[in-house]
Amino acid sequence: MESEETVFQHFVEEINHNEIHQIKIVGKGSFGTVFKAKWRDKFVAAKYIDSAGERKTVTIEIRQMSRVNHPNIIKLYGACTVNPICLIMEYAEGGSLHNVLHGTPVASYNVGHAISWAYQCAQGVAYLHNMKPKALIHRDLKPPNLLLQEDGRILKIGDFGTACDLKTYMTNNKGSAAWMAPEVFEGCSYTEKCDVFSWGIILWQVLTRQKPFNEVGGNAWRIMWWVHQGNRPPPIENCPKPLEDLMTRCWSKNSDERPSMNDIVRIMSSIFRFFP
Ligand code: ACK
């Protein structure tokens, strides 16, 4: 079996700590601190992993990120594998979509931006699902993991730390309940269609600018119970019919009734033409 060390060595460039010049903390992720830093004349995001216990998760994140190459996915340049473990990634100066949607000061954007973000996210996810020999399932799509560049025009998927076993996922990701497909928290087997569910919630969120399931309060267990009972976000007033249909199909309880990510890209590309 492939050891952790082999994964580190094979997939990414080993970077020495003294090559990284930290500039400022940009935030705290699910298992580490993210710095804006300079590395070889480039601004980068340096994600330091707090606990040695997370080494397995990081290994998975490195393994996943090093296989992907897509304009809507943050690139991994390399990693420091000597403690403190650190991932060196493409920097997204616009921060997360979550901050744009719900941060202060309130950012201004229009429905065209919202559709473009959802469309770009769908293209990144479709790429992951089309990977060979095996589809890559993201499993934690949500606005805090979607990053923006170029004044918010470009959206990139930025966090792969959760593509690991279900138990770790459930214990580390209580904050993700609002985007989680029911089959995931119910402990059933699941497929890439769980990302489709999350994408539907994101679409609702960018169109309404509201946090999903705010009405139930922030408690992850209550959200899961609510969704398990068949509740979904409320309809959007004056929502164009094709978007509403797409969104509600993504939330189907039966994952076979959800569209594929390729379907979503196709439908969004035709809707996007009306909102250039
Ligand atoms: O919302 P933010 O400003 O954007 O705060 C979070 C925080 O780190 C924890 O995830 C930010 N972040 C994560 N990855 C990157 C990146 N590649 N470029 C810029 N900011 C990042 C994220």
Automatic annotation (TrEMBL):
Class of this enzyme: transferase
Entry binding sites for ATP: K47
Superkingdom in the source lineage: Eukaryota
Record: residues binding Mg(2+): N145, D159
Keywords recorded for this protein, A-Z: ATP-binding, Coiled coil, Kinase, Magnesium, Metal-binding, Nucleotide-binding, Serine/threonine-protein kinase, Transferase
EC code: 2.7.11.25
GO function term, MF aspect, one: MAP kinase kinase kinase activity
Domain (Protein kinase) ranges: 20-275
Cofactor(s) it depends on: Mg(2+)
GO biological process, one term: JNK cascade
Reactions this protein catalyses: L-seryl-[protein] + ATP = O-phospho-L-seryl-[protein] + ADP + H(+); L-threonyl-[protein] + ATP = O-phospho-L-threonyl-[protein] + ADP + H(+)
Catalytic residues (UniProt): D140
Transmembrane segments: none
Similarity comment text for this entry: Belongs to the protein kinase superfamily. STE Ser/Thr protein kinase family. MAP kinase kinase kinase subfamily.
Protein name per Swiss-Prot or TrEMBL: Mitogen-activated protein kinase kinase kinase 7
